[in-house]
Specification:
Helices cover 26% and strands 28% of the residues. By secondary structure, the protein is an alpha+beta fold. It has two domains: 3-48 and 164-384, Naphthalene 1,2-dioxygenase Alpha Subunit, Chain A, domain 1, CATH 3.90.380.10; 52-150, Rieske Iron-sulfur Protein (3-layer Sandwich), CATH 2.102.10.10. The strands form four sheets. Strands 1-12-11-4-3-2-5 form a seven-stranded antiparallel β-sheet. It has a seven-stranded antiparallel β-sheet with strand order 13-19-18-17-16-15-14. A hairpin with a 6-residue loop joins strand 6 (107-109) and strand 7 (116-118). Helix 1 (3-16) packs antiparallel against helix 10 (363-375). It is globular and about 70 Å long. The protein starts with a helix and ends in a 19-residue tail after the last helix. The structure holds FE2/S2 (inorganic) cluster (FES) and fe (ii) ion.
Length: 394
C-alpha cells in the first residue's frame, strides 16, 4: 500500500470507529485521491458482487448488454442454451472489444479481424487462420465471470471464487416481502455520467436527510426528510425508511399502498444501500435502482432505472401520454442528486472544508464507512466497540 493510501485508511478508521453523536463525515481528501481509488478497485470492486442489471435485459436467448467493472469490460448474455453468463469482451486475438452497448445476436464478431465467438464464449472461427480454436490443447474462449441473480437483479463478481451472493444481500429480502420486485419492470432506464467520486454518489442514496433540501417538487412532496429513520443494517447492506404521505394527493400511490398488509409497509417504504455501490429506494408503487460505477476518482457512471409494478408498466405501455410525465419526474430527481455531485466535487480541494457532524438521520453513512474500512484492510469495527447489541448497529 502506498503512503498516501495508508494515511487515507487511518482517516477512514477514525471516521468508522466513531458513534452517532460524535461521528463526522469522511475527510474530503478521501473523495479526491486516485491512489485510494486503485485500492478500492482492487479490494472492493474486483472482489465484490456488483449489481449490473435486471433480468428483463436478457430475457431471451441471444440478448446481451455490456458494463464495465473496475476497468474490466463485461458482457452479460443469455446463451442459446438459455444460461446466463458474464464474459470478458476482450478479443483473444489482439484485444479489441467484441461487444459494446447492448444487442441481440447469435454470436459475437470482433470488428477488428472478424474472429467470432459463441455466446458461451467459445471461439468459433478466425478468418484465414485455419483452426485456432484449440491451440496447444487449450480451448480459446472469452474469460467467464461469476454471475447470479436476486429479486430480478443481476450481479457479477470478478473474483475467482466469490462467496455466495446471499452472503452479501441475505436478510434484506425480509424487508421486501410485501413487494414483488422480481416482477417489476423498468421505465425509464438510467445511464449517465456524474462528475463526482463514486462514494459521494453512494452517500447521497444512503440517507433521507437531504430529501427536503435537494428534492423539492419531487420526492419531498410525499417522502419528506422529517420521516427518515434508520431501520437495520448487515455487513454488506444498510436500510432506512421514509414515510409515504399519499393521503391528500397521489391517488395511484395510495391505491398501491392499500394493497399492502396493515403495518409499516402501508405507510412507509424501505430505502436500501447494497454495498459497495448499489441503492434501491422504494415507494409502494415505484423503486429507483441505481448502481454507481467509478470511471476515475472524480467521475462515476450511474446505471439503473425506475422499477414499477408490472400492471403499472402495462398501463404505461398502453398510454404513451402517461409515460413522459413519469419519465420527467425520474429525470428531475436524478438531476437533483447529480447537482449535489457537481457541487460537492467542486469543493473537495478547499483548504477550509472540514468534516461536519453526522445527524441521526445519517446513521447509514456510518455503516458505509465501516464497510469501507473493513474492505480496505481494517478490522471489523463493531468488535472493538462496547455497548452494541446488534453487531452491525452503529
Ligand atoms: S483483435 Fe479481435 S479479431 Fe483481431
Ligand atoms: Fe437524493
Amino acid at each position: 500500500m502506498t503512503t498516501t493510501a495508508s494515511v487515507q485508511i487511518a482517516r477512514l478508521k477514525q471516521a468508522a470507529q466513531a458513534r452517532i453523536g460524535t461521528a463526522r463525515a469522511l475527510p474530503m481528501s478521501l473523495y479526491d485521491d486516485p491512489e485510494l481509488l486503485v485500492l478500492e478497485m482492487e479490494q472492493i470492486f474486483r472482489t465484490s458482487w456488483i449489481c449490473v442489471g435486471r433480468m428483463e435485459q436478457v430475457e431471451h436467448p441471444g440478448d446481451w448488454f455490456t458494463v464495465e467493472i473496475a476497468g474490466e469490460p463485461v458482457v452479460v448474455v443469455r446463451g442459446m442454451d438459455g444460461r446466463l453468463r458474464a464474459l470478458s469482451t476482450i478479443c483473444r486475438h489482439r484485444y479489441f472489444t467484441v461487444a459494446e452497448g447492448r444487442g441481440h445476436s447469435t454470436r459475437f464478431t470482433c470488428p477488428y479481424h472478424l474472429w467470432t465467438y459463441e455466446l458461451d464464449g467459445r471461439l468459433r472461427g478466425a478468418p484465414h487462420m485455419g483452426d485456432v480454436c484449440d491451440v496447444d490443447g487449450q480451448p480459446t474462449r472469452l474469460p467467464e465471470f461469476h454471475v447470479d441473480t436476486w429479486l430480478g437483479f443481476i450481479f457479477v463478481s470478478l473474483a475467482s471464487a466469490p462467496p455466495p451472493l446471499l452472503d452479501s444481500v441475505g436478510g434484506a429480502e425480509q424487508y421486501l416481502k410485501n413487494y414483488d420486485i422480481v416482477s417489476w419492470r423498468v421505465i425509464p432506464w438510467v445511464d449517465e455520467v456524474w462528475p463526482g467520486n463514486w462514494k459521494l454518489a453512494m452517500e447521497t442514496a444512503l440517507e433521507g436527510y437531504h430529501v427536503t433540501g435537494l428534492h423539492p417538487g419531487t420526492i419531498d412532496t410525499f417522502m419528506p426528510s422529517r420521516s427518515a429513520r434508520f431501520q437495520a443494517t448487515a455487513a454488506d447492506w444498510t436500510l432506512f425508511r421514509l414515510d409515504t404521505l399519499y393521503e391528500k394527493n397521489f391517488e395511484a400511490l395510495r391505491s398501491y399502498a392499500q394493497r399492502m398488509p396493515e403495518g409499516e409497509d402501508r405507510t412507509s417504504a424501505p430505502q436500501f444501500g447494497f454495498f459497495p455501490n448499489c441503492a434501491v429506494s422504494c415507494s409502494q408503487m415505484s423503486s429507483v435502482w441505481l448502481t454507481f460505477l467509478p470511471i476515475d476518482h472524480q467521475s462515476t457512471r450511474v446505471i439503473g432505472g425506475n422499477l414499477v409494478p408490472s400492471d403499472y408498466f402495462e398501463f404505461l405501455q398502453a398510454r404513451p401520454d402517461a409515460v413522459q410525465p413519469h419519465v420527467d419526474v425520474v429525470n428531475a430527481l436524478n438531476a437533483q442528486d447529480a447537482r449535489a455531485m457537481v457541487n460537492l466535487q467542486k469543493n473537495v480541494r478547499s483548504r477550509f472544508a472540514a468534516p461536519g457532524l453526522l445527524s441521526e438521520k445519517e446513521r447509514n453513512l456510518l455503516c458505509f464507512y465501516r464497510y469501507l474500512y473493513r474492505k480496505l484492510g481494517g478490522e471489523r469495527v463493531h468488535e472493538s466497540l462496547p455497548q452494541s447489541e446488534n453487531p452491525h448497529d452503529p
